Amino acid sequence: MCAVAVTGMGIVSSLGKNLFENYQSLNTGKTGISTPEILQTNYKDLPVGEIKINNTRLSNDLGLNPGHSYTRAALLGCMAVRELLHNSGLSEFDPGTGFISGTTVGGMDMTESFFDQFSENSENLRYIQAQHPGFTTEKIAAYFGLNAMVTTISTACSSSANAIMLGARLIESGRLKRVIVGGTDCLTRFTLNGFNSLKILSGETCKPFDENRNGLNLGEAAAYLLLEADEMKGNRPAIARISGYGNANDAFHQTASSQNGEGAYLAMKKAIEKAGVDPVNINYINAHGTGTGNNDLSESVAIKRVFGDHIPEFSSTKALTGHTLGAAGAVEAVISIMAIQNQEVFPNLNFSQPIRDTGLMPETKLHSKQLNYVLSNSFGFGGNCTSLIFRNE
Amino acid sequence: MNDLHTELKKSIIDQLNLEDMDVSDIENDEPLFGDGLGLDSIDALELIVLLEKDYGIKLEDPNQGKEIFNSINSMVDFIEKNRTK
Amino acid sequence: MNKKYYIKDYVILRQGRLIRNGEVLLEAGNPELKDFLRKIYKSFGMRYPKFFKMDDLSRLGFLAAEILFDQEKPEADTALIFANSSSCLETDKAYSKTMSGFPSPSLFVYTLPNIVLGEISIRHGLRSENLFLVQDRFEPTTMIDYSHSLLNKAKASNVLCGWVDLHNTDYDVFLWQIAASGRLEHNEEELNKIYLPE
Fold it and tell me: What is d(CA A23, CA A226) in angstroms, rounded to the nearest whole number?
């Protein structure tokens, strides 16, 4: 079965600034959820998955000159892509390398801070274009001199999962030989206030799949994978392969998921079909599991519909990372691949009581397990549902 | 019908973009959600904002809304008991 | 593998004009966007109260899709591949104005460009693949490649492509459907000709 090779990856999240730190946190079940210190907000007590490195330190680390116009999402994106380059076995990206980045917040951290000053303060005018989600993608591409196909996907919380899917397709169809796929999003007042107005933020660390779950925690992160056609890979190892993907719309509500989880059900089903396996071959699901009443119930119903009596082990890692919106699909792709590399299932924190209507029990302890196929779910506002399947090389 | 009923209907029509609808189209005891006016969950959140903005009532638990937003009558009842402005 | 596809039909909304397959169906002078949208809604006798709850970007895409699907309802596996350059900037601005007082949930839910795809999907029960790309300018290559790949691999039986842009008061909408046969070949040249005549 032909499947697209993943030959490198990189991540920065509230769990750590590289793969090693993220793995350590996943392994010890140490949450990245805290209260905002870098994000300037009145909601001082709302838990968030914040990366405790400010923009100045990120800029210095990346060797950027003062006066640059990198948004926080671009800075985080550069960190993750730099790590990807280091562990890909390449010395640099060749000119044909594509770049597909998912984001929903883009550079709104800058525009929300400077919007009122644009007319008076010419110094900040360099950020006036930052509202455009493509601005952040272009900044990351410029940092690495990527100028083949560069594109942004914005489909809310499934953005980077769709970026991964698009990249896999471009490799399969032969249009690209090598492509960096993933996504980046940072915390902003815009999203914190917005999710708060929807009454879906929890005042404590989220409790995915628990009967008493009461909302999600926003987070920030950047994560990317390098996908390659086998002829480019040469003798370099593939760390995993993308063997299936599926996207479907829930066609139910702007932000809420349907009671029967139709979109999620279709996305998982399509991904499994594409992978050419039976549902029983899926060894672990990294669930979307945001910790809201609506998502976790709908996703549970969908999982039961797809897998029937043979529910694979599953967990949501969002109580560790927070919900990183457009970056979530890529963050959880990296986590899924780490699970395969280490043959380990990472825990779903804060679970004590199953949801009454569905009774599903997520995995709450780190443990070893033979993992050949891992399915990862990402569902976004607008009904956009995506499932990806990663296979052990 | 007292003034609060009418005032509330006006602001609901305005706030929830109920185009083509008039104060006289909304009955005091008609269900606002489901088969009645057909409002949805986002409308419910917008009504929570309306309570806070116009009447100084903060609703922390959105589940409370289910009873309060049953009809115009139930909303008026709740507002009269709890308004701070 | 390079199977040919064709442009089945298209709709343009621009400068107070509604054009379907080259024919001007409605000419409204140069009204405010809201009035233009309402006029289209009324003149086609639409009845869909949710329309008035949508933000302007969704209303634009929704109306254009309604007009395309006026005579023939879309098949259930019609994929939606859309793009624009201004994302949902207008709604972002409107929502951020409310942030200093009472952040508006009904505005916040539209601060994502792909919500327009969700609205079209809800209206027609489409649970098909959908994607929203943000580009500098109208540049159909990606949409062509993506939609042909979907059709070639039988992942969709039909694709609705669209450019739905709204910036300040400027709106620019071009939606088209792809078919297996037809007059105009589905390629960059023909699309550019329709999008930018002369």
Answer: 19
